[in-house]
Here is the input.
Amino acid sequence: MRRRAEDVLKLAKSGRDFAELAQEYSEDPGSVDQGGYIGMFARGQMVPEFESVAFALERDEVSELVRTQFGYHIIKSLWRHNPTLESNREELEALAADRKLMETVYQKAEEARAAAIEHADLREAVKSLDFIVEIRETGLRQRDETTFDPEVSPEMFDDIFSLMEIGSIGTPVDHAQGVAVPRLSQIELPRPGTFDEFRQQAESDYIETRARELMDAEAQKLSAEGIRLTNLTVAARAQGFSVRTSQDFTLNGMPSTEIGSDQAFNQAVFALETGAVSTPHPVQDNVVVFQVRSRSPFDEAAFEEQRTVLGAQLLENRRDIYFQEYFNSQREEMTRLRKITINQRALEQASLFF
Here is the structure.
């Protein structure tokens, strides 16, 4: 592998088109079709051996061989940006303006909170302020509800249920429209529900259950008749059902948009003999009965042609998974031991790319 990499390096150093060389010789499935282009990246995103060389290159410079846990690499720097105060002035000014705006919003929210504590009537509290405040009533909420409500953010939800007395005021919290100050206006203790409250849901659940039972019964009837006739099309038309033919698909493929990606369905199909009719099989919110019309044999010749590429792709995927797990475990451990501190804001603002 090293000898081959050295030969490619000589070609790259001689002036051969880098993208053409990558398309011809690269074994990286993620970049080979793009002529070896891996996109822009900042410090900390690549393994140290690769990164130290990449960030030392000048524009259009080609590196020597770089050895990492993933193999041998030849790097060409297409573009490099060294951030300065002037180059990031516009972004920094926008960031400072946003931060100042949020500070102002929270300051106003604290003023609104103080006014709400002083005035029992929220309308009077709003009148005492020199800025616009909107009063909204959310209605009752359950502590364990899981439905998403754009009017009540998770932070606001938690703050509401930290309040213990009617009329108590919460702290300013983020929500979809800005910043809110919760006020508890009503408490209702849990109680058993009445049938009238749940009638609509009960009727809907009954109809759905009954429809499923009828659908399963019809599917069983269709399957039995299809197996008896060894012809699903004839059996389906006799019972008034339509028949659809899927596209050719592999074990990991998608038969049709109606079925979608369903590994259990695919396994059931590939376990059935050609010409056989299946028993009912659940798919999403439906039930299907299918018949295998044809099956293509495994193409040994095509597999042999792709063996090297497939092996490289599998190896690369395994390496990626291993490296990510190792990286995450090391980061968690070093963070726990206080050996490192991750500055998330700095990572988000990093602008040194290739």
User: Anything to note?
Assistant: Residues 2-73 form a domain with the Chitinase A; domain 3 fold (CATH 3.10.50.40). The chain has four domains: 2-73, 89-180, 199-288, 300-347.
